[in-house]
Amino acid sequence: MFTIIVVVSAIFPDGVKIGRHVIHCPDLRKWLTPDTVAYRDIQSIIASVDTVDHPFEPVLPVESDSVVEGEEAKAVVEFVPQRFSADVADESVRAFEFQDGQDTLLFPFFRSVVRARQRNAPVRILHYGDSQMEGDRITSTIRNYMQRNYGGQGIGFLPIVPANVHSVKFQKDISPQWTRFSILDRGAGRLESNRYGISGNLARHAPASEDDTTAHIGLRPHNTWYRNARTFTHVRLFYGQAEKPFDATLNQDLAQRLPAADTVSSALWRFDAPQNSLDLLLSSSSLPDLYGIALDGENGVAVDNLPLRGSSGLDFGRMDTAQMGQMFRMMNVEMLILQFGANVVPNVLDNYDFYRRRFAQELRLLKALKPGLSIIVMGVNDMSQNTPDGYKSYPNIVMIRDAQRRAAFETGCAFWDLYEAMGGENSMPDWVFAEPPLAQKDFTHFSVDGAKIVAELFCKAWEREFHKFWTRFGK
Question: How many CB atoms lie under 10 A from the CB of residue 88?
Answer without folding.
Answer: 16
